[in-house]
């Protein structure tokens, strides 16, 4: 990996200079997605992209979108979203060829979706590629922003050099205070603290699927029960430990059965990511199979896929959410709903800090395996404090939306 990374850095240094883009017409906005293969198979990605496109269309009603892609699936999904795919991220092109294809669209603006792919903790070569393309567009006079992203506890050290050498017109937006501090240790590049752009996503309250969730919620409330959403997925364990995911599911099922029976809870299992081996279904299907024989009357797993706007609408009807997905937590918090997180990549604590909540509302897959009694105690405290936590989250909502809007400062200033 180190050799490939350093070879890429060398190629970028040789290719990054270039003349200005000649775009003179309507705004043409390049989107650099965090998943150029599947585009929106992650509901979190869908939430961020939808929020970005909505902002841009409100600002420039005639704007056109060009999305950088890496495969046929993404190309088709981009077209369905009303944008134009530009196949440059499949690894087959040189930097010069990549820029030729992008510049042919005469871009005026670029939005790079930061998410959690820019610190190299998954793939430093891919992280560097997204940063380098953004840099080369900025050097050519395109207004570029990088929306709020996370920095894990172990970012790839070599990326500090890439961040430091990017065009000084780029401001890197960090989406939580912990990531902001980590980025400051990694790089000297300009950075700002914002909130995740998905806090701006507008819920779709009137869809058929959301009304179906609402009907189920109404039935459960009529029985005097509180409603809690639940999400867990394979990535809550690192790859080397992934073989133990069945232990996570079994122990979590036992805890939830206790809470359903003793705390008058009803549970909706919420699918939020549909990408291959990391899809939520690999955990939520087995979890439902364990819950249904014991507490099936109080458990719901939709057979239909809710999109990002529908999920934000659906979870707003809940009393709380237990989530292994950060963007499900964001959807919940954005609707004033308290969250209990199953941490991974050490990034959820920053989100909780952002909304004024403590890390006591966090567990880990390892703790679920090794100390379910402790997890049970944490969940009991979380449930006992739901009303007070909801009031605090609702009060924080306007400030979070204002901080989320800061993601776009670099697009509209000047």
From TrEMBL:
Domain Polysaccharide pyruvyl transferase: 43-345
Keyword Transferase: yes
Pfam families, per the entry: PS_pyruv_trans
UniProtKB keywords: Transferase
GO MF term list: transferase activity
UniProt entry tagged with the keyword Transferase: yes
Descriptive protein name: Polysaccharide pyruvyl transferase family protein
């Amino acid at each position: 990996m180190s050799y490939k990374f350093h070879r890429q850095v060398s190629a970028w240094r040789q290719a990054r200079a270039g003349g200005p883009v000649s775009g003179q017409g309507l705004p043409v906005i390049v989107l650099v997605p965090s998943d150029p293969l599947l585009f929106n198979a992650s509901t979190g990605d869908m939430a961020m992209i939808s929020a970005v496109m909505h902002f841009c269309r409100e600002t420039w009603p005639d704007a056109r979108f060009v999305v950088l892609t890496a495969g046929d699936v993404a190309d088709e999904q981009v077209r369905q979203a009303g944008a134009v795919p530009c196949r440059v991220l499949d690894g087959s092109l040189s930097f010069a060829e990549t820029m030729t294809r992008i510049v042919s669209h005469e871009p005026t603006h670029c939005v790079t979706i930061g998410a959690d792919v820019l610190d190299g903790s998954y793939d430093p070569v891919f992280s560097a590629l997204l940063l380098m393309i953004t840099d080369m567009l900025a050097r050519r006079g395109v207004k570029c922003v990088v929306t709020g992203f996370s920095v894990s506890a172990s970012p790839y050290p070599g990326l500090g050099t890439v961040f430091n050498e990017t065009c000084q017109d780029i401001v890197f937006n960090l989406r939580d205070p912990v990531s902001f501090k980590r980025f400051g240790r990694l790089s000297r590049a300009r950075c700002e603290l914002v909130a995740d752009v998905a806090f701006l996503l507008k819920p779709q309250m009137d869809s058929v699927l959301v009304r179906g969730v609402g009907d189920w919620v109404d039935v459960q409330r009529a029985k005097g029960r509180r409603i809690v959403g639940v999400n867990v997925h394979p990535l809550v364990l690192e790859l080397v430990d992934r073989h133990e995911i069945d232990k996570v599911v079994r122990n979590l099922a036992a805890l939830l059965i206790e809470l359903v029976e003793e705390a008058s809870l009803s549970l909706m299992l919420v699918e939020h990511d549909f990408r291959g081996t990391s899809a939520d279904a690999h955990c939520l299907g087995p979890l439902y199979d364990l819950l249904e024989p014991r507490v099936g009357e109080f458990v719901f797993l939709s057979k239909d896929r809710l999109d990002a706007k529908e999920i934000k609408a659906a979870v707003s009807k809940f009393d709380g959410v237990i989530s292994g997905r950060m963007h499900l937590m964001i959807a919940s918090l954005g609707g004033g709903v308290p969250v209990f997180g199953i941490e991974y990549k050490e990034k959820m604590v920053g989100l909780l800090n952002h909304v004024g909540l403590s890390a006591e509302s966090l567990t880990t897959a390892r703790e679920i395996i090794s100390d379910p009694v402790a997890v049970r105690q944490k969940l009991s405290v979380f449930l006992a404090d739901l009303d007070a936590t909801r009031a605090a989250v609702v009060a924080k909502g306007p400030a979070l939306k204002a901080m989320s809007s800061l993601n776009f400062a670099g697009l509209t200033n000047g």
